[in-house]
Design a protein that fits this description.
Strand content: under 5%
Number of helices: 42
Oligomer: single chain
Distance between the termini: 73 Å
Shape: globular
Strand order of the largest sheet: 1-2
Helix content: 55-70%
Largest sheet: 2 strands, antiparallel
Number of strands: 4
Length: about 750
């Protein structure tokens, strides 16, 4: 190894002026030299250090590009070839550039070294060939004609199926114009399965024509994962195929592909194939992934999933989908009932699904098996409290809750278990049992009064959830003993439990004195729960006047005391309450302005939105804030907040702050992107209503129709088991908003059909 040549110029680089993930890059030259150490431990440690510094979790830094030539020369000299070529590929593929002087500099540095890397496409080691093909592909447009020629030559010479698959993918990425001819030849010929799978993925990714023959080929190859390409491409083939097809607007094709894969998985199971379970797992995951993108997928895929319920070995793959898709599935009820009456985790999952599906038998089953069904109890709680569920959820009229009420009473009276179970063994559900039991009773209100003795007995053990339940279950006139129990609880113990009991007492009797007392302490302490204390104070409305001196003191504190999210949120909540009680704009405007300034903070969007909400309360009095508001549209996520404030400050203006309402509508609708969080998506609709019907052109109304009735889900972020339910709620809300905006406007037959469905 010619080490002087490898490291020529390394000491001429001013590494002290360069940075990596952990600061100064002065350690990089020594690490690069250690890669060539004959001591394996030294070389391996240097490699790990470089992974963690110059390409930390895929991020590249100012020190990354200067290190690339030395990495490439080491590879050319035979040092840790596969690993270092892979590192170069990650560098080239990075889209997370930290303070690079020129965008794309790291990728360009790798492309400049391709002359040293391309010969490795013919290396004797198949892993080196595979990694090199992948790395060359990461250079994308920076790779020149020599790279394309080298890949063509490798394609002609390569016989290993896995390497051919990688070379095909690399060729398609670097030369999209040749992709269709290449893939057509592969799919029409007798190429090995890995190459066929690669051709199918390229066909979907590159927007090439997809016919019935391609779907049939996918079905024959299921499970596709067994023909995988290794970890470098980072994709699950079937899921990636359907995502690509759906993204390019071919929802029906994507659904057909998944449906065919599910049918193939069922057939393999019936045949007793060794690949059956892998096929089921792969197809089920693709179905779940597609359902979170496509609104029509669940209803169309359910018939293909239902046969898997008949086998205990595969039922567990399907039950969670029945629970989270929010799709009526009466044909699944008999199989679920059979499973739910058994024992174990599957029985609990099945009963939870029955609860969500509104099966009339679910309540009785839960009552009989309450201690062994924590997930089903959680499902009943979430549905009753509105945490989950969509407009399609219905409940049997006249449903008899008495058996479940009796079971809850017995469970509340039982001594709490001392067993500490793993979260993965139902531990979290067991820990939350008092919350679920009390929450169900709270949702039922006065009809659960029979449980008052058990609730009162449980109050010292579980003061927070039980207090909330007593507030709705008790009759303040007939249950004076409940009032006294809450009053006693509000006067003792930790502040959180006192506050909960005092809030319940206020809700029941209107007596705010105990809650004022607790909140006064919390507001004076300025502790970790300050923002929660302010929220509780806001619930008192006019009765919160005794707290005004403390709230004014909070607002008058210097901005430096509000550098954390809880602190600024507490101040904004205090500003909203002070405005409501006093109308003192001079006291609240500076704090709102502070909140708006969080637009420049990392993760500051939620704070800006809260500040905008408070500004809306002021109406025209918030006009001094307009200069701080106008830059907000630079972030599409904040456009709805801007619109809400401007329309409250200038309610009668056709051009608030000089911005035409139609132009504001454009900005708001640009924020309605697939993959949004539920609250962000809903904010778009609220802003549309605030702008009013005259703000929208026909084209803009068509965009809202797409939000309401397009196949692509708008809500796509958040808890995975909530995405579909949240999107269905958003969809219903969007339809209502559209009806509001088009009132008196003739609707097309197509839209009228959608809005009535």
């Amino acid at each position: 190894m010619d080490l002087p040549l490898v490291f020529a110029g390394i000491d001429q680089v001013d590494w002290s002026q360069l940075r990596h993930a952990y600061g100064s890059a002065e350690d990089v030259p020594a690490l690069l030299r250690d890669l060539a150490s004959p001591v394996e431990e030294t070389a391996a440690e240097a490699e790990q250090e470089l992974w963690g510094s110059i390409v930390h979790q895929g991020t590249v830094y100012t020190a990354t590009a200067p290190a690339v030539p030395f990495l490439a020369r080491l590879v050319a000299e035979g040092v840790r070839r596969s690993a270092l070529v892979g590192m170069l590929g990650v560098i080239a593929g990075s889209v997370d550039e930290h303070d690079l002087p020129v965008p794309g500099a790291a990728r360009g540095a790798v492309a400049a070294q391709l002359g040293l890397l391309l010969p490795l496409l013919a290396d004797n080691d198949r892993e080196v060939r595979r990694t090199t093909a992948w790395t060359v592909a990461q250079c994308r447009s920076a790779a020149g004609p020599d790279a394309r020629a080298a890949l063509r030559a490798r394609w002609s010479a390569e016989s290993d199926p896995m390497v051919r698959a990688d070379v095909l993918t690399a060729r398609a990425l670097l030369d999209p114009d040749a992709a269709e001819k290449l893939c057509s030849a592969v799919l029409a010929g007798n190429e090995p399965a890995p190459v066929q799978v690669a051709a199918l993925l390229v066909t979907a990714d590159c927007g090439l024509p997809w016919g019935m023959e391609a779907t049939a080929r996918v079905t024959a190859l299921v499970p596709l994962e067994r023909h995988g390409f290794g970890a470098l491409w980072e994709r699950e083939p079937l899921q990636a195929l359907t995502k690509a097809l759906h993204t390019r607007g071919e929802a029906d094709t994507a659904i057909n592909v998944v449906g065919s894969a599910l049918g193939r998985a069922v057939a393999l199971r019936l045949q007793g194939s060794e690949h059956a379970q892998a096929a089921i797992t792969e197809a089920r995951w693709a179905a779940e992934s597609l359902a979170r993108r496509s609104r029509t997928a669940p209803a169309r895929l359910f018939p293909e999933l239902l046969p898997l319920l008949d086998d205990p070995a595969t039922a567990a793959d399907v039950i969670p989908l029945l629970r989270t898709w929010g799709q009526p599935a009466p044909e699944a009820v008999p199989a679920l009932l059979a499973i739910a009456q058994d024992n174990g985790e599957s029985a609990d999952e099945a009963l939870a699904a029955l609860v969500y599906l509104g099966a009339p038998e679910a309540t009785g089953l839960l009552a009989r098996h309450l201690p062994e069904r924590p997930r089903a109890l959680a499902a009943a709680y979430r549905l009753a409290t509105g945490e989950t569920g969509t407009p399609s959820h219905t409940h049997a009229p006249g449903e008899d809750r008495t058996p479940l009420l009796d079971a809850i009473r017995v469970r509340l009276a039982a001594e709490p278990s001392r067993e500490r179970r793993s979260v993965f063994d139902g531990g979290l559900a067991a820990t939350n049992e008092p919350v679920y039991l009390s929450g169900l009773l709270a949702a039922w209100g006065r009809s659960a009064r029979a449980a008052l003795p058990e609730l009162l007995a449980a109050l010292p053990r579980h003061p927070l959830p039980v207090s909330r339940a007593l507030a709705t279950v008790a009759d303040p006139q007939a249950d004076a003993h409940v009032n006294e129990a809450l009053r006693a609880q509000a006067g003792q113990g930790p502040s959180a439990t006192r506050q909960s009991a005092a809030s319940a007492l206020h809700s029941l009797t209107g007596d705010a004195a105990p809650l004022i007392s607790v909140l006064s302490e919390l507001l004076a302490e300025r502790g970790n729960g300050l923002d929660h204390a302010v929220t509780a104070a806001a619930s008192l409305r006019e009765a919160a006047r005794p707290l005004l001196p403390l709230l004014h003191t909070l607002l008058a504190e210097p901005a430096q005391s509000r550098e954390t999210v809880p602190a600024i949120r507490a101040a904004l909540g205090a500003a909203a309450l002070v405005w409501e009680l006093t109308g003192d704009e001079q006291a609240v405007l500076p704090v709102i302005q502070e909140g708006l300034a969080w637009a420049s903070h990392a993760w500051g969007q939620a704070t800006v939105k809260r500040a905008a909400e408070v500004a809306c309360l002021l109406g025209p009095a918030a006009e001094p804030l307009v200069p701080d508001l106008l830059p907000l549209p630079d972030d599409p996520e904040l456009s709805p907040a801007l619109v809400l404030v401007l329309t409250s400050v200038y309610p009668e203006s056709d051009a608030p702050a000089g911005l035409a309402r139609t132009a504001l509508a454009d900005r708001v609708l640009a924020a309605a992107r697939p993959g949004s969080y539920a609250r962000s998506a809903s904010a778009v609709l609220t802003a549309c209503v605030a702008l009013g019907p005259t703000a929208f052109t026909d084209a803009q109304l068509d965009l809202i129709r797409g939000l309401a009735d397009g196949d692509r889900r708008v809500v796509g972020a958040g808890l995975q088991d909530r995405i579909i339910l949240d999107d269905e709620r958003f969809r219903a809300e969007a339809r209502k908003v559209l009806r509001t905006l088009t009132a008196g406007v003739p609707l097309s037959d197509s839209f009228r059909h959608h809005s009535q469905s």
